[in-house]
Amino acid sequence: MEAILDFFRGADGLTFLSVYQSALRLALPILALFLVIRSARSLLGFRREPEVWAWLRLATGELLPVTHWENLMGRRKSADIVLDFVTVSKNHAVLSRQDDGSWMLTDIGGKGKVEVNGRQVLNGPVDYGDTLSLAGLEMVLEPVSKEEARLQANSRTRAGKGNSPGLTLLLLTVFQLLVALELVFNRPDDRIPVVTSFGITLGVEWAMFIAQKLIHRSGFEVETIAFFLVTIGLGVCASANADALYKQLIAMGIGIAIFLVLGFCLRDQEKAKRLRLVAAAAGILLFLANLALGRSINGSRNWIFIGSFSFQPSELVKICFILAGTSTMDRIVTRRNLWSFVIYTAFIGGCLVVLNDFGAAAIFFVGFLAIALLRSSSYPSAVLILVGVGMLAVLVLAAVLAIRHFPHVADRFSGYGHVWEHPFDNKGYQQTKSLMCIAAGGLFGLGLGNGWMQYMAGAGASDTDLVFAYVCEEWGLLMGVMMIFALAMLGLFVVRSAKVARSSLYTIGASAAMSILMMQAILNVFGTVDFLPLTGVTFPFVSNGGSSMMSCWGLMAFLKACDTRQNASFAVKLSTKEGDKA
User: Fold this and answer.
1) Nearest by Cα to 24 from 130, 181, 167
2) Of 168, 234, 322, 404, which has the fewest beta carbons less than 10 angstroms from its beta carbon?
3) Residue 60 maps to which CATH number?
4) Could you read off the pLDDT of 346-363 as tens digits, one per residue?
5) What is the extent of the structural domain holding 327?
6) Is the separation of the CB atoms in 537 and 517 below 8 Å?
7) pLDDT tens-digit profile of 221-268?
8) For the chain, what is the domain count?
9) Nearest CA to 225 among 172, 176, 148, 264?
10) At how many degrees (to 10) do helices 546-561 and 221-241 cross?
């Protein structure tokens, strides 16, 4: 290895290496741009025609398509199945598809009776050919024909069509090899952990890609974006603290395991419902443990230490929170389970206030709003939004009290917007040094391992809370923009997919997960550049932190489940029934 390094350094020790590093500073942002654009074209270029799972034939002969697994029926214009009939209530009933292909009809409190074959039901099964009646309006449930199912499957966008995921992953591999090579040149003492960590990452991503190919899944763009951000995070970690690389690898492995297990559980909604109850209980236990055993770091008592190992329970509770909040439509539009979720949300908010973790509280609040706004029916929505307003008021009050009684919180808020007036104290030291390092990095950066951010930011926050500045200094502003662009692209994908997602579980889960990830990025970036007060929130996948890494991979499972492209998501079972859609 030393001989190779000496060869690249050249006779004067600098010539070839300097040329190589200058070229690499230009090449890495270009490769990153190609990676993100290829993934974006594949994720955002699919057709958004809704799938038809059954038909409702009215007495007039008109056919109404059933386009979701849970369908709100009523006179409301926003209903999934609009029944413009005077006796039908705005929100009258829900027609839901079960995992085995059967159907259920649920009365959600409409003024008229809900009947199946003349028999009143509150929540009962429906077979093809049965007559459904809502306040006297009759319709017959009819199946989609085999030919219709075949034509729909053929018309759906196939994942990777025109933008091969394999080629995109190959570009990512080249990107990773170039990053690893530069780190080996610039950090020769750390070459063993660098080579090991990047080698394991390469092996894991290609193993996942091949495994999905073997089960006939062709979509890998979500994972590619995640591994792209992970690669930047490994580069930051190697530059700032190479000893932490192995810890990040272990966290990545655990996170990927959560991603795969959760993704396969989402294939079966009944299993997902049972898992939600377990997850809700786990979230409560994690916070109770945090309250009892938590230790304070930088003013927030959100860490639990077990020997030399430490983790933040609030990061893992994000996954539990979304699982507890996502529900199939028959539960969303009725009062069932509503108050339990409200109480669960209030418990989480109260714990975060007690733990003095207002950054996490803001993130959970955004996740709560995403779930509340996606719930249907006026009563549950009103209750949830009212609770959201109450939570916001409590958080504002708690923040005011924290500013008055906790000096570090007061410093962050009093220095907000005036950091250049306090460049040498706690009110502005971190942000002013971050802005200086961003400016020093320019568009293409100083080179991996050549920055001064780790020495200037203080308190070990350079590769966590202030990681955006770290990336901009060493990798360049263009790479920092690519990080944001990658997450924004995933957000657009969720927005496009939500309208045609098969189940409300997938729609709400993906939207809430993406809201949390985007809020993290916003708080991290805007706090670093003094657009918002610094909250100590990590950037997804990039910041050095095992708990954050595991949480982000878990949240990605909800995004994967929302993918409705042909054979794209392992979180949707391929049907073995003839004529059924995959």
Assistant:
1) 181
2) 404
3) 2.60.200.20
4) 888 788 877 777 778 888
5) 165-561
6) no
7) 999 999 999 999 999 999 888 888 999 999 999 999 999 999 888 877
8) 2
9) 172
10) 170
